[in-house]
């Protein structure tokens, strides 16, 4: 006597749904592999992936009572589909969307650092114009400017502004707090700040836009 | 007069380093007597500041050379109201202090040992009742020096070599001039002999030192060669043991193989006749048959599952090679996976039923 997989209509419907879930997970695994191996274009991947994710969410919602844990389901039927499970259960969005979001986050933080650099440049130059030339007045401003320049990853390590600010900080650290820059030194520092600022603006991407 | 503290400190350091030497240059005294030897020498130098402790090479009568401690210098000899200094060497032999030291009168170039002397031999060796009656541990160097001084005072062992007197005039009494020639001759011969002996002794001593160095080098070479040979012997022994063990292992393996050969031979002899009974048109598919319907169904489901897996694998290759479009590929993967699920689920269910059946049969067997 052979064993029947189902004995009534309801049971058959359940196994039909299980089969569909199984097929979606398997297909997603193949899709992830194809995307990783660069066998399909990102747009092609994204379209197909979105479709599979939508199908998966719809089906798993209706099967919530019978399949409360997808990992258990995959384990029961001996599926080796870790990439698919991550994509469908954990991430919930295609890899292209996920990585684009990460890039956006990086861009936004970069913008705030750029604004910080500009602010520090302008503050330093204005302070010199106001004849604030004592070491304990100038040093903190240059220190902040140097720190913000170092935070910006788009600038090269040998960027003019970084080197100049480091030299000035070294020079000021050898002077006493109440010592003042000579008129010649103040003019030189202002000149260095201005040329560094111009180089900085030129180094920014899409400055013209 | 006590010696200056600096000198005593120096002597202390010298004795400490000499008596604590190790290795080939170690002094040959018994370890438990070294502190007493040190004390004797320090007491001697404290009382007789004209003596100095030294280490030097002593040559025994049988030719052996050995480095020993000695006290070298002079001992005061009061004689007729004047104090003279007699040069002596006190050798502390290996057996000291249980046995007496060896004392020599050590004349300078212009001194001659009196011949004969009651205590001093022509070669300078001193003999005293104190030395002959040496008692350990009460006898010591200070008392020895005191006895030497007293003995020498009674009978001085040395006198200066005088220049030959002017030619005797005939007018002087013949009795005075008669003994001169033999004394002169004896003195000259004695000096020459002593000088010759000293030079020979020095030459022999130098030769012995050189020979000793050469022998030491040779001995070290032989000792290192011996250690090399010993190490090589050990290696050869180890190699031999390993070969013996390997031989035993191989013999055991040979026995196992022989046994297996016998077993297989027996099987062949038993089954040789059966080959003739085999049908020519044997059907491979019917060679094995499942024991029951559940097992048959299990076999079918598993075969179908694996077949679909192979198909999907082939499709992967086709898609990778570019001969299968992506949309077709993914659609077919999904369809085949759906079908595969049914087979896999059925197999899982059959397995559960078989397990239950096994458990039931075991329980029934236990119950009966």
Can you put this structure into words, describing what you see?
The complex is a heterodimer of chains A (209) and B (368). Chain A is mostly helical and 209 residues long. Chain A folds into 2 domains: 9-93, Vps28 N-terminal domain (de novo design (two linked rop proteins), Up-down Bundle), CATH 1.20.1440; 105-201, Vps28 C-terminal domain (Four Helix Bundle (Hemerythrin (Met), subunit A), Up-down Bundle), CATH 1.20.120. Chain A is built from 8 helices and no strands. Chain A has helices at 9-36, 42-62, 70-76, 82-91, 95-129, 135-151, 160-173, 183-203. Chain B has 368 residues and is of the alpha+beta class. Chain B folds into 3 domains: 3-158, Ubiquitin Conjugating Enzyme; 207-270; 290-365. Chain B has helices at residues 5-19, 34-47, 129-132, 141-154, 174-177, 180-271, 293-321, 326-367; strands at 51-59, 65-79, 82-92, 102-105, 111-113, 158-160. In chain B, the strands form 2 sheets. A 4-stranded antiparallel β-sheet of chain B has the order 1-2-3-4. Chain B has a two-stranded antiparallel ribbon with strand order 5-6. The termini of chain B are far apart. Classes of the chains: A mainly alpha (209), B alpha+beta (368). At the A-B interface, helix 1 of A face helix 7 and helix 8 of B.
């Amino acid at each position: 006597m052979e064993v029947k997989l189902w004995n009534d209509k309801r049971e058959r419907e359940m196994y039909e749904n299980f089969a569909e879930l199984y097929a979606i997970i398997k297909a997603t695994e193949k899709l992830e592999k194809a995307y990783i191996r660069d066998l399909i274009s990102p747009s092609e991947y994204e379209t197909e992936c979105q479709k599979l994710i939508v199908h998966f969410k719809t089906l798993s919602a209706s099967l919530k009572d019978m399949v409360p844990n997808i990992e258990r389901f995959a384990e029961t039927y001996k599926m080796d589909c870790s990439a698919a499970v991550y994509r469908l259960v954990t991430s919930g969005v295609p890899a292209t969307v996920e990585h684009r979001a990460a890039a956006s986050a990086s861009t936004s933080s970069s913008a705030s650092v750029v604004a910080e650099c500009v602010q520090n440049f302008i503050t330093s130059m204005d302070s010199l114009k106001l004849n604030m030339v004592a070491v304990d007045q100038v040093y903190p401003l240059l220190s902040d400017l140097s720190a913000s320049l170092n935070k910006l990853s788009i600038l090269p390590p040998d960027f003019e502004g970084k080197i100049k600010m480091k030299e000035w900080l070294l020079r000021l650290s050898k002077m006493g707090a109440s010592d003042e820059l000579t008129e010649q030194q103040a003019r030189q520092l202002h000149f260095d700040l201005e040329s560094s600022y111009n180089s900085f603006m030129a180094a920014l991407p899409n400055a013209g836009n | 007069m006590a010696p200056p503290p600096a000198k005593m400190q120096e002597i202390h350091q010298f004795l400490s380093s000499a008596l604590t030497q190790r290795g080939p240059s170690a002094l040959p005294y018994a370890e438990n007597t070294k502190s007493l030897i040190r004390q004797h020498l320090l007491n001697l130098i404290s009382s007789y500041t004209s003596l100095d402790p030294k280490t030097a090479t002593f040559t025994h009568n049988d030719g052996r050379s050995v480095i020993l401690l000695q006290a070298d210098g002079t001992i005061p000899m009061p004689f007729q109201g004047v104090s003279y200094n007699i040069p002596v060497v006190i050798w502390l032999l290996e057996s000291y202090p249980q046995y007496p030291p060896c004392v020599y009168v050590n004349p300078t170039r212009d001194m001659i040992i009196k011949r004969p002397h009651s205590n001093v031999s022509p070669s300078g060796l001193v003999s005293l009742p104190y030395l002959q009656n040496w008692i350990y541990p009460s006898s010591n160097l200070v008392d020895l020096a005191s006895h030497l001084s007293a003995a020498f005072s009674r009978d001085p062992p040395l006198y200066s070599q005088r220049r030959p007197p002017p030619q005797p005039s005939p007018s002087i009494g013949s009795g005075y001039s008669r003994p001169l020639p033999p004394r002169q001759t004896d003195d000259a011969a004695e000096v020459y002999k002593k000088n010759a002996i000293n030079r020979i002794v020095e030459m022999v001593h130098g030769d012995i030192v050189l020979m000793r160095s050469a022998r030491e080098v040779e001995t070290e070479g032989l000792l290192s060669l011996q250690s090399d040979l010993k190490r090589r012997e050990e290696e050869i022994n180890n190699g031999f043991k390993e070969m013996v063990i390997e031989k035993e292992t191989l013999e055991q393996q040979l026995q196992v193989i022989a046994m297996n050969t016998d077993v297989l031979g027996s099987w062949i002899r038993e089954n040789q006749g059966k080959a003739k009974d085999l049908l020519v048109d044997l059907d491979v598919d019917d060679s094995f048959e499942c024991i029951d319907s559940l097992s048959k169904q299990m076999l079918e489901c598993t075969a179908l599952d694996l077949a679909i897996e192979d198909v999907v694998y082939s499709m992967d290759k086709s898609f990778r090679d570019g001969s299968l479009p992506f949309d077709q590929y993914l659609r077919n993967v999904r369809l085949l996976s759906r079908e595969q699920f049914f087979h896999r689920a059925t197999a899982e269910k059959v397995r559960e039923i078989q397990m239950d059946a096994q458990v039931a049969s075991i329980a029934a067997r236990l119950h009966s």
